[in-house]
Structure formats: structure tokens, C-alpha cells
Write a structure and sequence with these properties.
Length: 634
Amino acid sequence: MNALHPFSASPAADRVHLRLMETSDLHVHVFPYDYYSDRPIDSAGLARTAALIAALRAEAANTLLFDNGDFLQGNPMGDYIAHERGLRPGEMHPMIAAMNAVGYDAATLGNHDFNYGLDFLLTALDGARFPVVSANLLPGPLAPPGLAALPRYTLLERPVRDGAGATHRLRIGVIGFLPPPIAVWDRRHLDGRAEGGDIVAAARALVPKMRAEGADLVVALAHSGIGEPGHVARQENACLPLAGIEGIDAILSGHQHLTFPGPDFAGIAGVDAEAGTICGKPAVMPGFWGSHLGVIDLLLDRDGPGWRVAEHQSTLHPIAIRKPGCGVVPLAPSNPAVMTAAARAHAETLAYTRRAVGRTAVPLHSYFSLVTNDASVKIVADAQRWYLAEMLKGTPHEGLPLLSAAAPFKAGGHGGPDYYTDVPVGDIAIRNVADLYLYPNTVRAVRVTGAQLRGWLERSAAIFNRIEPGQPDQILLNPEAPCYDFDVIGGVEYRIDLSRPPRFGPGGRLVDPTAGRIAGLSWRGQPVSDDMEFVVATNSFRASGGGGFPGTGVESMAFEAPDANRDVLLRYIAEHGTVAPRADATWRFEALPGTTVLFDTSPAALDHLDELRDLALEPAGEGPDGFVRLRISL
């Protein structure tokens, strides 16, 4: 357990110590269990976080617990409840049951809470014994009954004790925000039914109203990260301008799956990454899957009839740490009440995910998916193209070249050295299919020009740092770029010239419109010209504009399928019986003689080095945080 905070000591008379605690991005991780690898883990699970919550509650006289959203989707238990078993009115969702057992005071919604549709979301929320607020969720004309009833904010009235033991009544205003692009990311569920409004505009309108209604303190639950310093319309990561709004006292953030305070946000103007403040106000971001508990300790002084924040401290409490030579070491036991709340669903999920649907004749893993052609990505692309080849028959798009875009979803990064897909030769179970395709997207097709296709690939190539030719051991990957934005487009061939600057930055921001890393782009041996036309199979998130890829968006949509990408993958495997996807030579790095780069991957990758044929690669020692480092000669 962590040492007691300085604020844990009894404050002076007439001073109130209030402890705010936060979880975020739980993604249905109740048990400390990885359903994909079918084994217990120590680095995730609300059951473990709950032990920290209980300990920190016991230290302080006055505590509040909040969740920052993305709790209903994200692992096979969420998919099982939503798609296999269903959730009937009045039935408790296991995630909500677990949260009730922990005792949350309030929560807000994240973008992934909409992935199964509004009806499912509202049915799940019916069981919550805590208010769920969302200030910038805007119901549309087709919104289901109940959506408009979700409060935009709430005022929690709580008795609190000061340092002398006297009791006071404190009114804590709690307001929640979700990322505005939800209507783009989940268009099939939200079109005409709901959308996300601007975070900062909603706060400017509602925070003064909360104060006027008697809020002594305003806490912002922002399912939004730390991004641009200034306000940008419909900003996804808006915590910096949000913290600048008068009347907000504390920011509980999330969405980016990072941690704050800490080095993830060092060097950003207006952010003190060591003290844990944004624009001078206390803030936390507690990782993901229950990996950390975010804590803000406040000392409140009387301010006339109300209260003001006199001192504050932001800290993170991990449920496990990684020690060199020891791996992951747990710091908290599992809370039995939380485990019991979801025990039936856990057992049913295990039975569901262990069913075999086919076999693979080749290993399907993502250890090298960011540096070479990869079978685990190829099988997803193959399934999408197989499905759409039939769906596009008889449409105006039938005669066009059909390509397929797919990206690795689990390739280390902030997920750590164990966050990789690994399906060995043999049976493919449902849990393996879910491992190959994590998200409940549906299949889409977009019609693009050759110029847009090239731009799409330029956007994918933003994951790589610029490399100086002739120099040794340069870091290959940009840590700000997530692996799921590295789309490989099967059906064409191309090279990536790392010596050239990227055209796009992470998130899709255009940084150099004249830059071009994509070389030798060809289709069936012929150069791709700007005016050629293609159909690209992809998913609903990407096709609707998620990630800011050229050629995507509603205006480019050629076909909207009713089937989920994961279901299509499952049907593809089941129909073929045994699959053996070949990692075709779709792309490669442009040769840069005398140049080496360093690439971090899982230690398990060392068992698969003999599978590489077209990459000059060798071990280069240990990387940070439990990764191994490989050297690639370009």
C-alpha cells in the first residue's frame, strides 16, 4: 500500500480534508483476468482497485469516489453480455453490479459506453445506484425515451467533518463530459439519436449555473485527455481549456489510457506533470482497466457562507508495479464483494470464450506487426475482403479494385510488454477471435481515389519517427501514435521511406502537406495514379472519419454492412475450417544502407525470430518497462 498522504493527518479546526478518488477506462475489467490469454493477471481489474479504495477511505474522514467512463465495453465479458446473453430490463449488468459493490458516488460516460447502442446503455444504467452525468451529451430527434433524463450534472450534499470533529454540510457539484466525436465514431448507433457537444461550451454554460444553485465545490469528470492548450471547437482532448474555466475546482480525466501526474505529460505548457496540476488546478488521470486509483486530496477553508480550496495534492496509486527480473508484482488483493458481484458473468464468459470455431495452421501474433507484414493483421483484412466481395455484387462499386485496411490492435505501447495478440497453431477459440479483433465495429467500405489512398497510407506512416540515413540505433516508433492507427492496406504494394518527414502527426493533424513517405505504390504491378478509384474494406470507426484518415468520412461511404467485423472474422474462420493467412509482401521499409533503428516488443517475440524472412533484425538488449529491444538494419 502507499504511504499516507500529508493530508491524512487531522486538519485544523474549521478546515475540511476531502479526498476525491477516481477510476477511468475500466472497460469491463472486473476480475484480474485476461480473457484473451485465458489466465489471471495482476495489472488489471476493479476487484484489485477496490482494495486500494477501501484502504484510502479508511485513512480519510471525508471521501468521494467517481468513475470517468468507458466501463461497459472493452473485453469479452462486455461482448458476451451485450451480444450473447443479452441484458433484459431490470437485470443487473455485472460491471454495474461491481461498481455498486464498491460504492461510487457518481460517474460519467465515455465514448465506448455507446458501442452497443443507446438502448443497451440505458438498460445497463438502470441498475446503477449512483448518478451518471453527461453535460455535453445532446439527444437527437430519434433519441430513445430516457436519454434526455440523464442529468447533465448533479449536486451531491454530504456531511463532512472538520479537524475539530464538527460536522458541516457540503454541496459538491459533479459535471461530466464525453468526447464530442461520438456521433462519428458510433454513427450506426447514434445517427439522429444523439451527438456530443463541445466540452468547453457546455462547461461555460453550466458551471455558473451549478454555483448559483449552491455548489460549494465543482468537480469535472472529463472523459477527455490533455491535448491542445487552447480551445478548439468540438475538441476531443480538452482538459487544458476546461481547467481554465472559472468555478471548476478539480479535473478527473481519462480517455487517453495514460497516467497523470507523471512523465506522460511533461513539458506541456500549463501542465505541472510532477505536481499534478492543469492551469494550477489539481487533476489526475488513472491509467486504464483499474491499473491505478487517482486521488486528489483537498483542504477546504471557510469562505463566507461557502468553502474554497486552500491546498491540494494529486497522486496515483497503482495496483501493481513491474520490477526488473520479477515481472509484475501485485500491490493490492482482490476485493471479495466485487468478485462476487460479477462471479456468474465471469464463469459464463470463460465458457463462452473457450469454444473453438476453427483452426490455424500458422501462428497469429502481433509481435512484429509494426515493422513487417503480419499474419494476425492479414487474416482480418482477408475476412473483410471475402465478405465485401459478395456484398458489393450488383452495386455500382462491383467492378472496382477491392482493397482491405486492417491494423494491429494489440502491439505493446502503453498496454505494456504483455499487450500483444498471440494465437498459436491449433484451435481458434472465440477468445482468440476477440483477441484478433478487439472492438465491436461493423464492416464498412469506402470509395477512394488513388490520391486519397496515398494520403491514407501517409496517415498510417505517422507512427514512425523520422530517421537520419547512415546513423545507428535510432528509435523507430513515435510513442504518441497508437498501434491501431497503423493501417496496412492489402491489395496494393508500397514502401515507407523513413528518411522523409511525416505528412501527418498523431491524431491525423496535417503537419506537412508536401511530405511524402509512401514510395512505389502500385496495384497489380502498375503504378497507382491519383485519378484511379478503389473500394477499401474497413470498419465503421475508420470509415466514419475516426483517426482523421484521407478518403474516409460519410461522403466516401460505399457500403454499410449490418455485420460486425469480429462476426465476419469468426464466420470466415468457421467456413474455411483451417486458415493459414500468408503475410504477403504488401509493404516494407525503403532501404537506407548503414542505418539501424531500435524497436521495442514483447520478450515473447524472441521465440518467433526464426519466422522472419524479409527483415534484418537482431536482439539489442532490454528495453524500458519490461520490453525487449530489437535492432533493425534498414
